[in-house]
Design a protein that fits this description.
Strand order of the largest sheet: 1-2
Distance between the termini: 57 Å
Structural class: mainly alpha
Radius of gyration: 22 Å
């Protein structure tokens, strides 16, 4: 039976995953990593990275790098972190928010990170280079943790840890990692991290045009307070069980 060409099957699988943007970002990041690795034996990798990385000095000649720096992940550990972040946390965010809102969030955080690094470079008088998807991924993890603070994750498949602590650990590690040689950049690079927490927790509200899909999915909860949603579902379940028990008791009494 003809199931269509591989490209059609891939598009169908992305749609069925309910996280097409997160998995597409993961695929593109892996392709760029593979290209950098294959070109690493010569000067091709350096030229490719130069066209991707955001540098506060001379950025005006390469304005696109304010968005493309997220695909400069030459280190194997960097692409591993990107893969884990997008596969688990990015995909979960997209399923909760919808693809359009997730893309807007990820693009905004990516551009905001480049902007604050530029401002910090000007204020401190020190050039700064932004590369890898680490900061937007960290923001996505913090946003997920803000929406699911009581969720439990098995760290290394063994140690249970609450999502709220994952958010705090991610915040500290991201801030230290990206400001290691220039600690004065910390107040500036904290802005996208804090903004992600504020937006996901509902403390920062941005104007949006809700679609029929988001209205149907979010209902009375606005896609923010998932803890309240779980409590409401549990309450409905208890009421349903109480009603069924009462109906059975009445039937038995009549018999």
């Amino acid at each position: 039976m003809n199931r269509g060409n591989p490209f059609d099957r891939l598009i169908r699988q992305l749609r069925e995953s309910r996280a097409p943007a997160a998995f597409t970002l993961l695929g593109v990041a892996f392709v760029f990593w593979l290209a950098i690795w294959l070109l690493s034996g010569g000067t091709g990798a350096a030229r490719l990275l130069e066209g991707l990385v955001f540098q506060t000095e001379g950025w005006i000649q390469r304005p696109w790098t304010a968005l493309t720096y997220i695909f400069a992940n030459p280190a194997p550990l960097a692409i591993l972190f990107v893969g884990i972040g997008l596969f688990f946390f990015g995909a979960a965010l997209e399923r909760s928010w919808g693809t359009r809102r997730f893309i807007g969030f990820f693009a905004s955080i990516t551009a905001l990170t480049a902007l604050v690094s530029l401002i910090g470079s000007v204020v401190l008088g020190t050039p700064y280079v932004m590369s890898t998807m680490g900061m937007p991924i960290s923001c996505a993890i913090i946003a997920w943790a803000s929406m699911n603070p009581s969720a439990t994750v098995l760290l290394w498949m063994v140690l249970p840890i609450k999502a709220v602590w994952i958010g705090w650990i991610t915040f500290i590690l991201a801030l230290v990692s990206f400001t290691y040689a220039i600690p004065g950049m910390a107040p500036f690079l904290a802005v996208p991290l804090v903004s992600s927490w504020a937006y996901a927790s509902g403390r920062l509200r941005l104007p949006s045009m809700p679609t029929a899909r988001t209205r149907g999915r979010e209902g009375d909860y606005g896609g923010v307070d998932w803890e309240k949603r779980r409590q409401a579902e549990d309450e409905r379940r208890r009421l349903k069980e109480l009603f069924e028990r009462s109906w059975r008791d009445d039937t038995d009494a009549k018999d």
